[in-house]
Amino acid sequence: MKAAVHDAYGGPEVLRLDDLPVPEPKPGEIRIRVMATTVNRTDCGFRAATPFITRAFTGLTRPKFRVLGNEVAGIVDKLGDGVTGFQVGQAVVGMTGDPGGGQAEYLCMKAKGAVGPKPRGLSFIEAVTLLDGPMLARAYVRAIAPARGMAVLVNGASGSIGLNAVQWLRHLAPKGEGMVLDAVCKTGTVDLLHDLGAERVYDYKREDFTATDARYDVIFDAVGRSRYRYCRPLLKDGGTYMSTELGPGCENPLLALRSAAFGGRKKIRFPLPGANRKVLDEITALAEAGALRPMIDRVLPLEEIVAATEYVESEEKVGTVVILPNPLDEDAGREV
């Protein structure tokens, strides 16, 4: 089978196509013919081995796991012994866990893992965009616990996590019901964020959001490009700062531990997301209800994995960059 592999840590140029044996499902596993996968920040971090501590899991001097890709949408191709609840030909979506394996024509996953039916009415391309981003956003939205009178700011709202966080927050607290929801994004996505329910939208290329006179109960940095020290003045007393990134010197989880231990007028939290069937079913239900909209930046074949990765690392994407390991019509899979 065709797969994107990397045999050394480094930039996007270490990725290449290779022919690998088609995997055979072990007992309790299903084999998926991958119709759509993605390139995301997680893939980039594992490929570059940044932060360095990730090498404790992926391999100290060279990668133990050659194939990246932790989001997949495809068709069940074969069942391992003892598998129930799935059938050959069924359209499914799944989060493979770290470090991935989805950037290939075939993938085996545990049937009791984070894999389940594809959302009805969505193509494979659309469905694969509603996995990692919503899963990560969910952990932070649950920590925010939106309520009437609360003011929330989402930084990095143009990316997959930020876009899904804005949608999920507005689903829980519709506009006009007393929760202020502001966002920071790049030029060209201001109107999109307004359409998704954000009120004040800061274009970070034109203004510094940390200079605002607005004050917030929660600041959620969905891209990890700011720091608590810069956002702290914007927090109300009792307010909370959260980031998806470790930060310089792993400061964000360390600050969160200190905040939990000693308290303070302003708090730092570092929620840990979970990927399992229950979380996946929750995301699928929201997708089928229209509460989470697929946000697709571009769709590329697996042969363009290097260009796709370079684009993701340019930080110019809006939503998700989708990769097609197998030829697929854009609308294919809606009725599978």
UniProtKB/TrEMBL annotation:
PANTHER family: QUINONE OXIDOREDUCTASE PIG3, QUINONE OXIDOREDUCTASE PIG3-RELATED. This is Zinc-binding dehydrogenase. GO terms for molecular function: NADPH binding; oxidoreductase activity, acting on NAD(P)H. Keywords: NADP, Oxidoreductase. It holds the Pfam family ADH_N. The keyword Oxidoreductase applies. Gene3D superfamilies: Medium-chain alcohol dehydrogenases, catalytic domain, NAD(P)-binding Rossmann-like Domain. Residues 10-323 form the Enoyl reductase (ER) domain.
